[in-house]
Amino acid sequence: MSEAPSADRWRAKQAHYQDPAVAREYDARRFAGARKSGDTARFWRAIEQGLGPELARVHSVLDTPGGTGRFAAFAAREGRSCVLADLSHAMLAQAHTSGVPRVQADALALPFADASFDLVLCMRFLFHVPRELQPRVLAELARVSRRFVAVDVRHGCAWSAWTRALRGKLLARAAAPRMRPAEIDPLFAAAGLAVSGKRWFAPGFSEKVLVLAEKQVP
After folding, report:
1. What pLDDT does 3 receive?
2. Cβ distance 204 to 158 under 8 Å?
3. pLDDT tens digit string along 73-101?
4. Do 87 and 137 meet the contact criterion of CB atoms below 8 Å apart?
5. What does the pLDDT look like over 8-48, one tens digit per residue?
6. Which of 35, 72, 107, 144 has most Cβ atoms within 10 angstroms of its Cβ?
7. Given phi > 0 = left and psi -120 to 50 = alpha, else beta, which region is 115?
């Protein structure tokens, strides 16, 4: 896919989530129904299982883009501090969280010092980012992380990815390209992150994979 359509789609997606009406309806539209409403809990369980005993060493969490704060309740368990960062003020305004700081911020230039958080979360985002910007996003997540980064990646070797691409062709609507599984580790490595684990959700059917990575210290 050429750079121009990818960049155009990216700008349109950013503008879309700045709309207060979209933000108000986001949770109801995206997470209605028993299966979708459980997505956040399933991802957090995967993080808990992937980190294992190391989760006890996590005392601070950054969720970016934090959106409406779906992960805040999980991230703030057991006394952990959590910060939501999102480019969209409208989305942050809808965050159903109490006592969790909200910061309007661009994922390409996070307003935090190096190594500020033990764990950085990035959910439902990277697959929207143009391929040429993905290394920069991951590098910024790595910069503000003290150790762990957890990213929701979407891959193309799944029924949901194939049907999504087919719908895009039939409707003449550009779909965000999905990553090949073999591209995941090199992409993270280029950002200074070593992949320590992957959790594939419904292999063969779902395009979702949670990637856990550790920051590499030079």
Report:
1. 47
2. yes
3. 899 888 999 999 999 999 999 998 878 99
4. no
5. 888 888 999 999 999 999 888 887 665 566 889 999 999 99
6. 72
7. left
- Phi first, then psi: what are they for 44, rounded to 5°? -65, -40
CA distances from 72 to 44, 68, 84, 85, 177 (A): 10, 9, 8, 11, 29
What is the amino acid identity at position 110? Answer: L
Long-range contacts of 128-136 (CB under 8 A, 24+ apart): 128/10, 128/13, 128/176, 129/10, 130/3, 130/6, 130/7, 130/9, 130/10, 131/6, 131/177, 132/3, 132/6, 133/10, 133/108, 134/187, 135/187, 135/190, 135/191, 136/108
pLDDT of amino acid 162: 78
Summarised one tens digit per residue, pLDDT across range 45-71 is 999 999 999 999 999 999 999 999 999
User: What is the domain range of residue 154?
Assistant: 3-215
pTM value? 0.90
Q: Are 210 and 159 in contact (CB under 8 A)?
A: no
Q: Do the Cβ atoms of 154 and 43 come closer than 8 Å?
A: no
Number of domains in the chain: 1
Looking up tokens 């999905």 gives 178
